[in-house]
Design brief:
Length: about 210
């Protein structure tokens, strides 16, 4: 990560295609405040864009306790994707935790070897399509943090979160892995800018230092 997280800068610029600047200018457009800097040298043009404001999702109504700290928002994510047998996922709560342009990147073993970068809605559809809710075979689902390693500076944070997953109320662990959360603080709360994850296999064990 080089700045506030894996935001979709292309979409940010497309929020208003009239943004054309030479030199240095700060412009407000549709909820984004952007600073665009252009340097012109001999045969070289370097253009940089820094998103210093963030668009708030119109339908996001997060619980205050879910977004008050980096650890709180991570734990709320796990809570939102857990469900008892026969129950639905808490997708509205899940949506409320993310920036509108947030990305989720599963490990390729879960996507048939295909590298995928998902939006929040892509992720929800992916999980819903692979889940049968109700009936005798529905055992629910839980995923929870084993250990959270948090790096925090100012309005940015990174959480390396070791997780384990199992059926609802079961002690039998189905798998473990690491979620890496990219977080930003804006308008008095924390937001998830992106999550990528990988799962433990027989050939790649989770290092002991991350389990403490």
């Amino acid at each position: 990560m080089t700045d506030v997280g894996p935001l979709d800068r292309r979409r940010a610029w497309q929020a208003d295609t009239s943004l054309v600047t030479i030199g240095f200018e700060t412009t407000q457009r549709k909820g984004f405040r952007m600073t665009r800097v252009q340097w012109v040298g001999t045969g070289v043009i370097l253009t940089g864009a820094l998103i210093v404001g963030l668009q708030r999702p119109a339908d996001a109504q997060a619980r205050a306790a879910d977004v008050e700290s980096p650890e709180a928002i991570v734990n709320a994510t796990y809570d939102a994707i857990g469900r008892a047998p026969g129950a639905q996922f808490a997708w509205d709560r899940f949506r409320s935790l993310f920036l509108p342009s947030a990305n989720l990147i599963p490990n390729t073993e879960q996507t048939g070897g295909q590298f995928r970068v998902m939006t929040v809605e892509d992720f929800i559809t992916w999980i819903d399509n692979g889940t049968q809710i109700g009936g005798p075979n529905d055992q629910g689902f839980q995923e929870e943090a084993v250990a959270n390693h948090i790096e925090h500076y100012g309005d940015i944070a990174h959480v390396f979160s070791v997780y384990q997953k199992h059926f609802w109320g079961s002690d039998q662990i189905l798998g473990r892995g690491i979620n890496t959360f990219q977080l930003v603080h804006h308008e008095g709360r924390w937001w998830i800018a992106g999550i990528a994850w990988d799962e433990e296999t027989s050939g790649i064990a989770i290092p002991e230092r991350y389990l403490r």
